[in-house]
Amino acid sequence: MIELTRRQKLSGLGAGITGLGGYWAISGTGGKEDVFTVGSPWTPDSRDPVVNGWLWRRISVLEPLLTVDYDATVAPGLATDWRMVDDETWEFDLREGVTFHDGTELTAKTVLPSLRRAFDSSSLASVPVKSIETADNRTLTMKTDEPFSPLPAHCTRGSTCLVSPTAIADDRSVSEPIGTGPFQFESWNQGSSITASANSDYHGENASIETLVYEGITDDQTRRLKLENDELDMARILPNETVDSLELRDDITAHTYQIPRARYLVFDLDSSPFADRRVRRAVMHAVDRETIVENLLNGLGSPAVGPFPSDVTDWAADNLEPYEHDPGRARDLLAEAGWEPNGTGRTRDGDPLSVSIWTYDTRPLLPTIAQVIQTQLGEVGFEVDIEVMESSTIKERATNGSFDAVLWSNSVLWYPDPDRLSDFVHSETATMFSGYENETVDRLLEEARRTTDRDERFGRYAEVQHILQRDLPIGWLTYYTNVVATRAGVEAYRPHPIESCYHLENVTDQQ
Amino acid sequence: MSGPAADTGVRQESDQRDEWTEVIPADRLAQVGLGIILILLVLAVFGPIVSPYDPATQDLSSRLEAPSLTHPLGTDQLGRDVLTRLLHGARLSLGIALAVTSVRLVVGTAVGLVAGYAGGWIDEALMRLVDTLLAFPGIVLALVIAGILGPSLVNVMLALSVVGWASYARLVRSSVLSVREREFVTVARLLGHTRTHVTARHLIPNVVAPVVVLATLDIGGVILGTAGLSFLGLGAQPPTPEWGTMLASGRTYLRQAWWLVNAPGVCIMFTVFGFNLLGDSLRDTLSPTQSAQMEQL
Prior knowledge:
The complex is a heterodimer of chains A (about 500) and B (about 300). Chain A is α+β, with helices and mostly antiparallel strands and about 500 residues long. Chain A folds into two domains: about 35-250 and about 490-510, D-Maltodextrin-Binding Protein, domain 2 (3-Layer(aba) Sandwich); about 260-480, Dipeptide-binding Protein, Domain 3 (Dipeptide-binding Protein, domain 3), CATH 3.10.105.10. Helices cover about 30% and strands about 25% of the residues of chain A. Chain A is built from 14 helices and 21 strands. In chain A, a hairpin with a 2-residue loop joins strand 6 (about 130-135) and strand 7. Chain A is globular. Chain B has about 300 residues and is mostly helical. Chain B has one domain: MetI-like fold, CATH 1.10.3720. Chain B is about 75% helix and about 0% strand. Chain B has helices at about 15-25, 30-50, 80-120, 120-135, 140-150, 155-165, 165-180, 185-190, 195-230, 245-250, 260-285, 290-295. Residues about 1-15 of chain B have low confidence and may be disordered. The interface between A and B is large, with 42 and 54 residues.
């Protein structure tokens, strides 16, 4: 017991010092030559493109058939051109003069194993690709089960990144990321870091950085400290509050840019009180999103109107009517729905108007925002509990049972096609758990998937957005602004809205 | 088992009473520990009454303000007064610690008495259960239990109670084993007293002292455990002002607002320190002869 006791005493001190702990910067390693180090919250867990391709793509080791432009549209990649031949057939022209890092030439034949493997995998299961064939040495033909206009957008996804046929074993496993990018894989520590070197045979302009080190650092304070300590040249996804103090420093530049990601409330449409649309509307009128942006997000970002931020993408519907902050209107709506004031709260037939908001803390601001919403909803008579859980637990519990509301954050355009809305509200394919069922919405989404005409598609997606604004299965709260900071001397960095690639091959580092 | 010092572990109730009064003034460290605990108790009881602020009321216009005369420990990310939240947190932490320790003490003592007095297969079964519990690192087991039950303060208390009683059972059983063979117990039984009477009159008084010492030492651990589990998000839910939760949510603002993490951190440290000082001194002073026995816990 004595020993345990001493340990207890020590760990008691330890807990107290935790507060002070992070305060002292981690000791620097210093002295680095031509090495560019970037720190991000995501750890490299696999070398398989189907699993972790998005990460290898971000650091430009792997490349997919198509890429995403800075205006969030599909752009040429390893395929220079693509077209729909008939309703269910697509052709892709491959780029000339591309070799994989192992010297294999990129031809229709050599990309086939990698591409087939990707579209057979579970991560692309929702994409109805029937077959992939070679038309000739430079042309690929892809057939789909049904007319599917988002196909090019799915061909930009990290999991479709192409690896050399030599990297694919007989059992179709991939052991090394041999791609075509401006950087080639050197070594890695699974779960923590990757080292890559410039690829002198790159088909585009060669990178100026010679050695690229990627570090997966989960904790944002650690990323920040490492940047300040010159252990990182670039720290990604820093908390909004850091911008002010980082900007005071001469040796660090902070980049802020809006991304198509939103924070939103998913309502359970199958249980009281949010089965009633008036109650959902009351929530949206009660929440002051301006205040959240101004105070909690440090003015970075903007209140959300619909799913898509119009600053980032053209797919945002015009004239969506925002829900203004209007507690009076919220109270009226609640009274209309039968929730009458009773003491500090409200009741209907003796039931109190009490709801529970579930959220998670891997996005650190969510629990804080939940507390502001709790207070603001309290002002119009809701009694709100907050439960902070693992996001996977929430997903499981909300999918299988009833809940009230979930505060969630997700990309609304992580592949550059508005068909992403299906993931939110299509009655059958939605992964968000509101339980929303609307035949018109389903029909519009399906029609828009079948046509390639942009205007026709836009019309349908706009209509869906207008219906959603009325029905409110999901209440959009705020959009996201990312903060990326670089050391002085890092130049020509241009943040990408979808972040599918950091494009570090364009970046120069003077120091 | 209790080892060579087991027999000397027996003493009469009256002896202990004398020692209790002598212990505390005698030991400087105990005085310090007791002082810290008393100050905390006073703060926990009266602090929230005196404070002009509410621990949950937000004031977004004055968020992350540095310590000043209006907010002696600054404000947090939602503009709430940190000192007020700490004081409310003190109530929570001390309350939980006392509750959990009491549960541990009662359950552990009961199991220990039954095992020690009944012996045989009951003893065997109970002690193997205790062994199993002791073999697990307590905090890890608590983490699993709290994780399964879902995040809430009540579940954390449950989890900590479930994992912590085993050492009490161990201690009580070994004391009982040594006492039950003594003449006065045998005489009591020969006189026809019931088992309940023997237990209440002769066994319990003889195990009280070490159990109280253990409990004092344990309180610090419970406070740490609660804060730790809450820090990991398994305990108090926002906006409850629990120290561990405050520490966790303040961590995001470490560089901008040092007071957010340091204030609850220092509170946890002093509280645990206080209880451990008192517990250590009690153990050393209360019964030097029992020290050897206590060492084995």
